[in-house]
Design a protein that fits this description.
The protein has 218 residues and is of the alpha/beta class. It has two domains: 2-119, Rossmann fold; 126-216, Arc Repressor Mutant, subunit A. The chain has helices at 10-22, 33-42, 59-68, 84-92, 105-119, 152-163, 171-178, 187-201; strands at 2-6, 26-30, 47-51, 75-79, 97-100, 126-129, 132-135, 140-143, 146-148, 206-209, 213-216. Strands 2-1-3-4-5 form a five-stranded parallel beta sheet, sandwiched between helices. The protein has a four-stranded antiparallel beta sheet with strand order 6-7-8-9, with helices on one face. Bound molecules: calcium ion. Calcium ion (CA) binds at residues 8-9, 51, 53-54. Calcium ion binds at residues 8-9, 51, 53-54.
Length: 218
C-alpha cells in the first residue's frame, strides 16, 4: 500500500511519514500544494493525507481539482481543531474522512487503514483468504495461524495482493503500489521479490499469468 502525505509543517510531515512507514506503507511526501496536487494527479496511491492550509495551493482547491480530474483515491484531510466549517467544506469537496489537529498518530493510521479497506470493498479489519490471514493493525501476515516474518516490501506486496484477491495484478501495478516515488522501475526486481515471497507463504499461493502478471491462487 502506498500513501501520499501533503503537509507543509515539516515536523508533522516527518512524524506522519515515520509512523506510516513503520506501519508498512510506502510513503511519498509533498511540502506544498502544487507538488501535492501534481503527485496525486500523476502517481498511484491507495490513500492520501491532505493538510488544508498549504502554501501555493490550498488543500480544498487540490481536492476539488483531483475530483474533477476523476481521481477517486480516498483522501483524509487534516483540519484545524475547532473548525466544523472546514470539516464540512472538506467533506463536500470530496474528502472521505478527516482528523482534527492536534491528532494522535494511531488515530490517523487506523483511519487510513479503514479508508483503504473500504475503497477495496473489505469490511473486516482481519482478512482471511485460504490459509493466509492479513492483520493490518499488527502489520502481520499469518499462514495457518502462525505469523510469517517479512520485510516491509514483502508485507506490502502480500497485503496488496490479498486486498486485490481474484484480480490479475501486473508488474506495473505492483511497482506503483508497493514502492515510493524514488524507486527506479525494473521488472526483474518484482520477479525476485515474488520468488522470495513464494518461499515464505507457499509456492502454490502466487500464480504467474504469463504476459499479464500475478494472481493469488486461493
Ligand atoms: Ca498547514
Amino acid at each position: 500500500m502506498r500513501v501520499l502525505i501533503v503537509e507543509d509543517d515539516t515536523e508533522i510531515l516527518r512524524l506522519l511519514a515515520t509512523a506510516l512507514t513503520s506501519a508498512g506503507y510506502a510513503v511519498d511526501t509533498a511540502g506544498d500544494g502544487e507538488d501535492g496536487h501534481h503527485l496525486g494527479s500523476t502517481e498511484s496511491y491507495d490513500s492520501i493525507i491532505l493538510d488544508l492550509g498549504l502554501p501555493k495551493l490550498d488543500g480544498l482547491s487540490i481536492l476539488e481539482r483531483w475530483r474533477k480530474e476523476g481521481i477517486t483515491t480516498p483522501v483524509l484531510i487534516l483540519t484545524a481543531r475547532d473548525s466544523w466549517t472546514e470539516k464540512v467544506k472538506g467533506l463536500r469537496a470530496g474528502a472521505d474522512d478527516y482528523v482534527a489537529k492536534p491528532f494522535q498518530m494511531e488515530e490517523v493510521i487506523a483511519r487510513i487503514e479503514a479508508l483503504i479497506r473500504r475503497a477495496k470493498g473489505i469490511v473486516n479489519p482481519v482478512l482471511t483468504i485460504g490459509p493466509l490471514t492479513l492483520d493490518t493493525a499488527q502489520s502481520t501476515v499469518f499462514r495457518d495461524g502462525r505469523p510469517i516474518v517479512m520485510t516491509p516490501l514483502e508485507y506490502r506486496l502480500t497485503a496488496y495482493m490479498m486486498m486485490r484477491h481474484g484480480a490479475v495484478i501486473s508488474k506495473t501495478e505492483i511497482t506503483e503500489h508497493i514502492y515510493d516515488q524514488s524507486f527506479d522501475c525494473d521488472s526483474n526486481v518484482i520477479e525476485v521479490l515474488i520468488n522470495r515471497l513464494r518461499k515464505k507463504i507457499g509456492a502454490e499461493v502466487i500464480e504467474t499469468r504469463r504476459g499479464q502478471g500475478y494472481v493469488l491462487a486461493l
